[in-house]
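Pasting as-is:
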Amino acid sequence: MITPFLKFLGEAVLISLSGVMAPGPVTAITVGKGNESPHAGAFISFGHGIVEFPLMIALFFGFKMIINITFIQVAIGILGGLFLLFMGAGMLKDINAPDVKSKEDPHPPIITGMLLSIGNPYFLLWWATIGVSLITRSIGFGIFGFAVFAVVHWLCDFIWLYLLSLLSYKGKNFFGKKFQKIVFGFCGAALIIFGGIFIKDAALTILQNR
């Protein structure tokens, strides 16, 4: 018989995966860096976790109101958008280089995972809404329930991102340089699009609150 806690965890996994597997900046850069190392996704997820675990703990203690402050959301949107535009433009610029690598992002994957998480307003929005709801439900099972939920949610990130970088690396080795250039072109364009969306939404927020 499935206990209420296991039922909750099952629902949490499905909800978490729906967010993790949605196309976004982390997905794009993971695929790009996966061309260089099959383990890039694992390290990106570690960097993501360095930001996400403290955020979950903060929300556990009731800090939701802070990330709902308009100024903070706008600042994150603009800075995060500029960061993505920079990375995307670099990918497209170097796409015809003899050895295609993610030169536009000199950071190791762990740091990239942290920066992408901090600079993603939708990441914070997800946690301020859906995430808070899941945390509230996990609290009903005590501190242990919250801790297990936090680890299980992060494992969804880890497994998916690691799988993406493994597939990207295998594809590069199998299909060669042409595949690598297609991947970098796609990821570079995706990062520019998401960067533009972040900045556009930040600008709209400013106009709506004038």
